[in-house]
Each structure stands twice: as structure tokens, then as C-alpha cells.
Write a structure and sequence with these properties.
Elements (H helix, E strand, L loop, with lengths): L1 E7 L7 E7 L8 H16 L5 E6 L10 H8 L9 H11 L5 E5 L2 E3 L1 H7 L3 E5 L3 E3 L13 H9 L1 H9 L4 E2 H7 L4 E3 L9 H16 L18 H17 L6 H15 L1 H16 L2 H15 L18 E5 L3 H12 L3 E5 L3 H20 L5 H8 L2 E4 L10 E4 L5 H12 L7 E4 L6 H4 L9 E6 L8 E6 L5 H13 L3 E6 L6 H4 L1 H12 L4 H11 L5 H8 L1 H14 L9 H7 L12 E3 L5 E3 L1 H13 L16 H21 L6 H12 L8 H8 L1 H15 L7 H9 L13
Parallel strand pairs: 2-3, 3-4, 4-6, 5-7, 6-9, 10-11, 10-13, 11-12, 13-14, 14-15, 16-17
Antiparallel strand pairs: 1-2, 7-8, 15-16, 18-19
Helix pairs in contact: 1-3, 2-12, 4-5, 5-6, 6-9, 9-10, 10-11, 12-27, 13-14, 14-15, 20-26, 23-24, 26-29, 29-30
The structure holds 3-hydroxybutanoyl-coenzyme A.
């Protein structure tokens, strides 16, 4: 983690020092790198033989920004070095130093990386390079001058959009906006950034010679609004947007505040405000949660005992998908978009045609949104081949079965396929409920079958649950992990059990919500509280989205397999009986208009609620209307049993590590990323508190709430849940 200096000697007054940021893989600005950067820039500025400075990153990447591991330490309250004086270095040595600095940006300049480049007099970038200030995604704000320089380089409105939405732009757009001075065709992806560095050296020499005017970002005003009225209008919109970004996430407002001070009092004052706000943001629970989530989501692909065997993954180039329904066509779309050949199998020509049409619609919608050119879409769709014959899977590298949840059907499919596909072919099922071992029970080599659980819509949702059994060969796991990387999904490897990780951990979510309704709570109030907590929607709106049939069907598995810890309210089954199926019938807990807008409909659901309260299957104490639940009670009643089940999943070795459950909860169920994931959040609450509350709820409301052995141990021994049980069963 350092910087190095090379000097390109030229003719008279043409010596350029090239300073390279070195911290693979993305040249993150670690403390040691910042120190070395300061020394090298200072000595180049002091060296009379040097006329200009070019900054570049090693291995074809400029920089992925400030070191997030360091941010993590600060968010956890560990003693760390304050880096705000780096701002002063950028202003004094890079922006205002005697010699002009030019940034040679290959492939990406994000966060602190872009901020370093913005202190330069000019930026040259490779075509397609990604530029952005995504700090808000980490719960912080730009802290190396970004809130002051970006508005002055691209304009106030655009800069606020880029910062508040963590929106990256390409170097081409950067050139249109004035952020990039020159775009260079470069083979930067292979780590060779010669062309961009040469171009940056040329620009640096021209600035040093006075042929090109030197720009000072902090004092520029040409891109800022012309008058106070226009400024106020743009800032008012930004302030409104920042406030809308949940109350628990104040950093958007901090960012707007820093920009505002810079506009009103000048950039020096703005930089001071930025530092103050950065320090405030980095200490917030949201930053802690988001930084945890950043690393957790990158660590899921390492599976102890498997990926450390250093097996070489085989590349999946072709995939066979069994079933062209919603899931099958979504899976096929995801594979096609990642460059694979797809064979789609159906049992009837009309089903096959419908499946292909779904794939065309998925890809066509990207064209409609302007995300893809029609010619490219045509070429992608051209890679899918429909068939009614299993034998067409003979040469594919992987088969993903996505038919209805019928065990006999799945058993038959795999026993047939086993004798058709090549020995190296990965055989997988997309079941979300049925045991993998049961699906494989008629195979000659049942250990060949793994679970490949996509979430709907499969071509959009990020999470990919890989389900293994005790005997799954490591090579199959390694190959499937490589496949997940190829389709750009986040894999979570889990063991075989009812509901696997996501569905199992979250089964108490809706069950607890029905307990609360049966106790007298208003379902719409519950949904509001849970949305305020940060979930994309509350449990009843989710029930409508999923549909009552699916809800009841999936719920049955848990009722059968975990009878001691379920709550069976008649509420959802009675809506199913009355054909209030949810969004698809435009009536469920809510009513829906033609644009799928949900409106509460208490008149319609009151009889169902009344019936559920009368017929609840578990005796509940007290008079419902007198129980009076606060928002905090609702959150705890709903999420503490979810934490409890997540603890079981961890204890049983279904999940390898707590951080995997965090990632699964965020990407699979929409648990708010700023809370870091279900178990990270639980540890912030403390195992002791959760244990105590669950014990209290358990006494009143039964087994759904009784704390499991692992949570009990954590509470009694003062351990965090994330520490894990220290034994991997699978
Ligand atoms: C003061 C400043 O204003 C504050 C800041 O700069 S905060 C940082 C702002 N920067 C960011 O948010 C960018 C974060 N990084 C990313 O978005 C992506 O990693 C990326 C686009 C740079 C690369 O993506 P991709 O190629 O898919 O690789 P990805 O797996 O994400 O990252 C590769 C490795 O680099 C690490 N990494 C990426 N950016 C990092 C950073 N800024 N600091 C530390 N490590 C980083 C990842 O943890 C990963 O490590 P691993 O191999 O040990 O798991």
C-alpha cells in the first residue's frame, strides 16, 4: 500500500513525475498509501527538475476510493487516525501546488479516488471508465472535498444527483459534463494503461507550458447557478430528497448541508463543514451497518473447507433450463445476459412458446428503458434454443430445473436427466421448499444434485442461494460459485433444510404479524411501523405481493416441520378461501387499482380479522384492545423471532457464518442494508435483551417466541451472535 514515482523526462521544461497509486486490487486509499502519496507529491512539487505531475493507479484501475476497512474501524468505534487533513494536502499540494497535476484515470475512480482526481488541474480517462461518489451507500459522505469540487465541475444539480443517488457516470458522460478533459481508447482492462498515461502526460506538459489553461476546481464558478434564486430552487429540491431518505439515515442531509455551506460561504468553509459532517456520519449506526454489509456481501463466496482447497472451477458456458414459467424464463434471461447459451425445455409447444416470449419480454424491457441496443437484444435472444426433448441437454454444462413444486415430478426429472447429461454437468433444482435430498432420491448419484435457488424476478434479484447436502462434492460447489460470479449474483452457500436460509429465517415474520393482528393490532399500522423500520414493505403488503396461495402453501411446510414453534392464524387461509388472493386479484389485505397502487381496505377485511380473533388456535392472554402495542413492541415481536430462527440456522450449520445470514436477509427479504443484516442488527440490540424479550413473549404467546439454545447461550455467556457456534456441520 504505497505510491511510487517514475519520472518521464522530456525536452526542456518537460519533465513529468508519474505517481502510481498501488494497493491491489482496487488501489484503495489506505492510510499508508495516503502518507506515501503526500511524501511523493511533496517531493515532486519541491523538485526543480519536475514540471508537472501525473497520477495513475496500478493494474489498470485508478482507485476505488478511501479504504473502507479503515472506515469500518471508525464505525466500530476503534481508535483510528483522523484523515481529514488529507483534504488540506489535496488543496495545498495537488490543486494549488506549483506544478500542475493531471489524473490518468483507467477504468474507475470512485469516492476518494475521484476526489483525488478532482483536485487535479485536468482528468484524462479511459473510455467507459466509471466515475462517481458512492459514499452515501456506505452511510458516509464524500470527505476528500467531493461536496465542494463536484458541484463546481459538473454543476450543482448533476452533482447532487450523483452524490445523493450514489450514481456513477461513464467517462464519456464526464466529458460532456466537463468533469473529464479527454477520453482515451485504452486497453485499461488488461491492466495496461499506457495510452491514458501518455495522454495525461501530454495534457500535463501543455498545462505546464501554458498552452492549456490550468483549472482550479475549488475556485471555479462557471458551472454553478447564475443567481441565488436558481441555487435556492435546486437546493430546496435536494433538501426535500435528503429528508425523504429515511429519518434513520441522516447522512444525505449532512451531504446537502456541506454543499450548501460551500455555496453560501465559499469552498474553504465548505471543506470545513464537509469534514465535520463526515466525522458525524462515520459514527452513525447506519455507516456501521452499511460498511459491515459491504464486506459481508463480498465474503459470501469464500466457504471454509471448500474454496480454500484451491480447486479450479470449470466454466459454465451453456445451461439447460427445465420449465419456461416465470422462474424458468427469468433464470434463462439471467444466463443469456451473461453470455451463455441456453436450452429451454417445456412439455408442450405452447408452453415453450410462452417461455420464449417471456424471455423476449424481459430483454425487450431493457431495450425500452434504453439500457440495451435492439441489435444486441436480438443477438442475446438468438442464443436461446427451445426444445421438448430432454436429450437436447446432452451437452450443456449445467441444468437448472424450475418446474412447479411437485416432488414426484422433480424426482422423475432428475433420474431421467442423470443418464442424459455429461458427467461434468451440474444438476440443480430451483426449489424453494422441497428437500434437495428428497428430489435426488431416485438418482444413481444423488450427491450430484444441488439447490440453485433464485429469487423472483430471477434476472433482477441479486441473491443466489446454493444448497448443498452433506455429500456434495467440493468441485460442484466451486463450479456453482463460479457460475454465480458469471451471472453477477451474490451467492450464499447453505445447508439443506426446510426453507433453506432465507425462507426459513423469515417464516416468523408473517406469522408474528398475524399474532399481533389476532391480539388486536391494525394490520395497516403494523405495515407502517415495519416500513418505517426500513423494510420495503410490511408483512401484509408482502402477503398480497406473494399471493395467499403461495403464502399458505409455503407456511404449511413450516407448520409440518416445526410444529412446536409456529402460530397458525386463520387470517390468511380465510382470505384465500374468499379468493382475496392479493395483488393478482386486486384484493387481499389491500385493494389495488389498475396501476397496482395499494389502498387499505379495512371495511373489506374487518370480518376476516374478527373471525381470526375469534378462532385463534393458540390461547392469547388479555383483552386484545387493551394490550396497546408501541412501535417498538411491534418491531420486537416481529423481528426477534426472526433473529431466533437465524440463530438456529447458524447453530445447525445451515449457514456457514453470521455475515452470510446478514447478506441473505438483505438481498432475499429486503432487510434494511443500513441495519447491516438481521444478525448484525441483533448484535447491536444485544443477545441479552433479545433473549429476555423472547422469554417474556414466549410465556405469553407460545413456542414461536421461545429463545433457542444458541441465543440463550449467547445471552448467558455475554457473547455476540456473530461469533458463531464455532462448529461447521456441513
Ligand atoms: C473520504 C472518501 O470520500 C470516502 C470514500 O472514498 S469511501 C469509499 C468509496 N468507494 C466505494 O464505495 C467503492 C467501493 N467498491 C466498489 O464499489 C467495488 O468494490 C468496485 C467497483 C471498486 C470493484 O468491484 P468488483 O470488481 O466487483 O470487485 P469487489 O469484489 O467489489 O472488490 C474487490 C476487492 O476490493 C475490495 N475493495 C473495493 N473497494 C474498496 C475500498 N474502497 N476499500 C477497501 N477495499 C475495497 C473489496 O472488498 C474486494 O476485496 P476482496 O477481494 O478481499 O473481497
Amino acid at each position: 500500500m504505497t505510491t511510487t514515482v517514475d519520472v518521464v523526462r522530456g525536452t526542456e521544461n518537460q519533465n513529468v513525475a508519474i505517481i502510481t497509486l498501488k494497493n491491489p486490487p482496487v488501489n484503495a486509499l489506505a492510510l499508508s498509501l495516503l502518507r506515501s502519496f503526500r511524501e511523493n507529491v511533496q517531493s515532486a512539487q519541491d523538485d526543480d527538475a519536475i514540471d508537472a505531475i501525473v497520477l495513475r493507479g496500478e493494474n489498470g484501475i485508478f482507485s476505488g476510493g478511501f479504504d473502507i476497512a479503515h472506515l469500518g474501524k471508525t464505525t466500530r468505534g476503534e481508535k483510528t487516525e483522523n484523515v481529514s487533513d488529507f483534504n488540506e494536502i489535496l488543496t495545498r499540494l495537488v490543486e494549488n501546488g506549483k506544478k500542475p497535476c493531471v489524473a490518468a484515470i483507467s477504468n474507475l475512480a470512485l469516492g476518494g479516488g475521484l476526489e483525488v482526481s478532482m483536485a487535479c488541474a485536468a482528468r484524462v480517462a479511459t473510455r467507459g471508465a466509471k466515475l462517481g461518489l458512492p459514499e452515501l451507500k456506505l452511510g458516509v459522505i464524500p470527505g476528500f472535498g467531493g461536496t465542494q469540487r463536484l458541484p463546481r465541475l459538473v454543476g450543482l444539480e448533476k452533482s447532487l444527483e450523483m452524490m445523493l443517488q450514489s450514481k456513477e457516470i461513464t467517462s464519456e458522460e464526464g466529458a460532456r459534463l466537463g468533469l473529464v478533459d479527454e477520453v482515451v481508447e485504452d486497453d485499461g482492462k488488461s491492466g495496461n494503461d499506457r495510452a491514458v498515461v501518455e495522454a495525461a502526460v501530454r495534457v500535463a506538459k501543455r498545462i505546464a507550458n501554458g498552452e492549456k489553461q490550468r483549472q482550479f476546481s475549488l475556485t471555479r464558478t462557471d458551472k454553478l447557478p447564475r443567481d441565488a434564486k436558481q441555487t435556492m430552487g435546486i437546493m430546496a429540491v435536494a433538501e426535500g430528497k435528503a429528508k425523504k431518505i429515511k429519518a434513520v439515515l441522516p447522512h444525505a442531509s449532512y451531504c446537502v448541508e456541506a454543499v450548501k455551506v460551500g455555496l453560501e460561504k465559499g469552498s474553504a468553509e465548505g471543506l470545513r463543514k464537509e469534514s465535520e459532517m463526515f466525522q458525524k456520519a462515520v459514527k452513525s449506526p447506519a455507516a456501521k451497518g452499511l460498511v459491515h454489509f459491504f464486506f459481508a456481501s463480498r465474503a459470501t463466496a469464500s466457504v471454509p473447507g471448500i474454496t480454500d482447497q484451491k480447486l479450479r472451477p470449470s466454466e459454465v458456458k451453456s445451461v439447460g433450463v427445465v420449465g419456461g414459467g416465470l422462474m424458468g424464463s427469468g433464470i434463462a434471461t439471467a444466463c443469456l445476459l451473461s453470455g451463455m447459451e441456453v436450452v429451454l425445455k417445456e412439455i408442450k409447444p405452447e408452453f415453450l412458446q410462452a417461455g420464449i416470449q417471456r424471455i423476449e419480454a424481459n430483454i425487450g424491457s431493457m431495450v425500452k428503458k434504453g439500457k440495451m441496443k435492439p441489435e444486441k437484444a436480438k443477438a442475446i435472444v438468438g442464443r436461446v434454443r427451445g426444445t421438448l426433448d430432454d436429450r437436447d441437454f446432452a451437452n450443456v454444462d449445467m441444468v437448472i430445473e424450475a418446474v412447479i413444486e411437485n416432488l414426484d415430478l422433480k424426482r422423475k426429472i432428475f433420474s431421467t436427466l442423470e443418464s442424459i447429461v455429461k458427467p461434468s454437468c451440474i444438476l440443480s433444482t430451483n426449489t424453494s421448499t422441497i428437500s434437495i435430498a428428497k428430489c435426488a432420491s431416485e438418482m444413481r448419484n444423488p450427491e450430484r444434485l444441488i439447490g440453485a435457488h433464485f429469487f423472483s424476478p430471477a434476472h433482477v434479484m441479486q441473491l443466489f442461494e446454493i444448497i448443498r447436502v452433506d455429500q456434495t462434492p467440493p468441485q460442484i460447489l466451486v463450479d456453482t460459485l463460479a457460475f454465480s460470479k458469471k451471472i453477477k449474483k451474490t451467492p450464499v452457500v447453505v445447508g439443506n433444510c426446510t426453507g433453506f436460509c432465507v425462507n426459513r429465517v423469515f417464516f416468523p415474520y408473517t406469522m408474528s404479524a398475524t399474532v399481533l393482528v389476532d391480539l388486536g393490532c391494525d394490520p395497516y399500522a403494523i405495515d407502517r411501523v415495519i416500513s418505517m423500520f426500513g423494510m420495503p414493505m410490511g408483512p401484509f403488503r408482502l402477503a398480497d405481493l406473494v399471493g395467499m396461495e403461495v403464502g399458505v402453501h409455503v407456511g404449511k411446510n413450516f407448520i409440518e416441520d416445526f410444529p412446536e414453534r409456529v402460530y397458525e392464524s386463520p387470517l390468511i387461509p380465510s382470505l384465500l378461501d374468499a379468493k382475496r388472493l392479493g395483488e393478482k386479484t386486486k384484493s387481499g389485505f389491500y385493494s389495488y387499482d389498475d396501476r397496482r397502487k395499494a389502498s387499505p381496505d379495512m371495511d373489506a377485511i374487518a370480518p376476516f380479522i374478527e373471525n381470526a380473533r375469534k378462532n385463534r388456535k393458540v390461547p392469547l392472554p388479555g383483552h386484545p384492545e387493551q394490550l396497546g402495542f408501541s412501535a417498538q413492541d411491534i418491531v420486537e415481536m416481529i423481528f426477534f423471532p426472526v433473529v431466533n430462527e437465524a440463530c438456529r440456522v447458524l447453530d445447525e450449520g445451515v449457514a456457514v457464518k453470521a455475515a452470510d445470514v446478514d447478506v441473505a436477509s438483505v438481498l432475499g427479504m429486503g432487510f434494511p442494508p443500513f441495519r447491516g443484516g438481521i444478525l448484525h442488527w441483533a448484535d447491536q440490540m444485544g443477545a441479552k435483551k433479545i433473549y429476555a424479550r423472547l422469554t417474556e413473549f414466549g410465556k405469553k404467546y407460545g413456542g414461536l417466541y421461545e429463545p433457542c439454545a444458541y441465543l440463550t447461550n449467547c445471552a448467558h455467556q455475554g457473547k455476540t451472535i456473530a461469533e458463531g457456534p464455532n462448529r461447521a456441520r456441513l
